[in-house]
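Quick note —
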Amino acid sequence: MDDDFAEWDDESTIAAIERALSIAGEVVRLEADEEFPLKLRDARPDIVFNFAEGMGGSSRESYVPTFCEFWGIPYTGSDPLALGVCLDKARTKETLTHHGIPTPEFQVVESPGQLRREGELPVIVKPLHEGSSKGITQRSFCTTWAEVETEAARVVERYKEPAIVERFLSGREFTAALLGNDGDGRVLPIVELDFETLPLDAPRIYGFEAKWIWDRPEKPLDIFHCPARCSPQLARRIEEIAMAAYRTLRCRDWARIDVRCDEGGNPYVLEVNPLPGVIPDPAANSCYPKAARAAGLSFDEVILSVLRAAAARYDLRVPG
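Predicted structure written out below.
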């Protein structure tokens, strides 16, 4: 399976964001390619709406905001440090653990010989620096240490980066969309994943197959419930740890945080995504827009809310 471009947005998403931003003023597209730094310097926009995933390297999501700061140009979203930390799953989890925010136990494997055969099985094996379920397949769910060693070796060879081996949590899974900053930051209605919609013999994970193969426009995978079907107590706890992770990792303006429960129903933070995917088509399984719609926000309103949250940090006024 070729997942090289799984993180990148397609033209329909780019066009939808452009249309939404045009409500507030003139929009200029600046592709985040090798010419971007000089194009940015010459264009000097009032503010950059950043949703560039970058090309190559563990700091790729930091390139655009770094050059915005270099040229003194305001931009939306998290800063280069937060983006770099969040793209490194181990650094994210180390930070969360230091601050007492629950996240599953893990180890980083740079070569198969480094694997420590300790801790609970099963585990999930995935690339250290990828998103959008890139590198997470049915093989990522490992029930023996021999499987772990084989999968870690595959990840290291295929993605040219370390593998992270994380304790698998057998409970329910959720994702929380966050919008705004201190004072007006909030968690949008929680999205729950329904693994009963997966093939019967498939591990209960939302991996590459579920996202990009089994879920097709002609036969959508009805895997999400929003709002989540959980008790007020569990919803409150998910909101609390999601907001704590958001603030601890110094995310800004928006983010999506994946949460999964253990066998006792206790929620843990799996990953923090400060550049959440936003596919505009309501028929698509895109969690952030789905949560926003449940909160009564249209796609345009979400994009403009992020823009306004960022503009407020720079004391800029957004028309409209």
